[in-house]
Description:
Layout: H1 2-24, H2 37-40, H3 45-54, H4 74-88, H5 94-98, H6 102-118, H7 124-129, H8 137-168
Amino acid sequence: xxxxxxxxxxxxxxxxxxxxxxVLTGKNPPVRxxxxxxxxxxxxFPVKQMLDRACRDCHSNQTRWPWYSRVPPASWIMSSxxxxxxxxxxxxxxxxxxxxxxxxxxxxxxAACAGVRSGRMPLSGYRLLHPESRLSTPEIDTFCxxxxxxxxxxxxxxxxxEQRRTDDE
Length: 169
């Protein structure tokens, strides 16, 4: 009898955790295309494909939440990872970064290149569950070439903005 009560309690706790978890995870904020990375930067098709395949699940408001994202503790881990990734860089809200501070946007692109080149990004756990997110050396080179090029352009825009502010004073 005691074993049955204990089992029923464990099942009830698990179901309650799953219910709470399903409410807390799997929600994506709305996407406004005019605020996206593509609306702010020139993103060539090969880079866009790579971002879609290896980055957007965490670094955008377009996360695809698989079935296991609703089962604790996977749901808690995934929610935390996505929240932290969006805070670091969110392709769906890029204009908030780039329009207000081109130098910061340039720095974020260079940091993304460093993360990809070092193998820190995509996260190893994500690569394990999503083998298609693994990036080849040519893909990494393509991404970093693009990120460097766009960073230079953004730094130049920042310098122009700084010069205008100086001239206006």
